[in-house]
Amino acid sequence: MHNEVDVSWGEAAKYRFELRDAQPMDIEDARAWFDAQFKAFDCEIIRSVGKVLSVDKVLTVAQAAGEDYFSKPEHREWATNFARATCALLGRPIVRVDVPGMTIGY
Q1: How far is the first Cα of the chain from the last one, in angstroms, to the nearest whole number?
Q2: Which residue, 46, 49, 48, is CA-closest to 102?
Q3: What radius of gyration do the chain's Cα atoms show?
């Protein structure tokens, strides 16, 4: 199956990760990957309900990592893992992440 994740910092800064050749990530591996990144980037919960939703983890990790992690070749493996984990965690083959707007589209 073709999976694709777009991560955007506005019109001038959009990054597409097409996962045609990447193996799909298992849901448990995706949860563990995002949990590790959430801790590594010292992310904070963005909603006051005390619960961290999957979409919040995706948005918060993308924001904390910053545009460099999606644009620079030295972070390509990390960005590909972000895309793989995002598709698995959200259960969608195509995901659009709008970092400044803090929204996710399918």
Answers
A1: 16
A2: 46
A3: 13
Could you tell me the pTM of the whole model?
0.93
State the residue for tokens 């777009």: 6
Nearest CA to 60 among 105, 16, 104? 104
AA identity, residue 59: L
Q: What is the pLDDT of residues 39-66, one digit of tens each?
A: 999 998 777 666 678 999 999 999 999 9
Tell me, letter by letter, the H, E, C secondary structure of the chain.
CCCEEEEECCCCCEEEEECCCCCCCCHHHHHHHHHHHHHHCCCCCCCCCCCCCHHHHHHHHHHHHCCHHHHCHHHHHHHHHHHHHHHHHHCCCEEEEECCCCEEEC
The pLDDT score that the predictor gives to residue 74 is 98
Q: Domain spans of the chain?
A: 4-105
Tell me how far apart the alpha carbons of residues 101 and 82 are, in angstroms, rounded to a whole number. 19
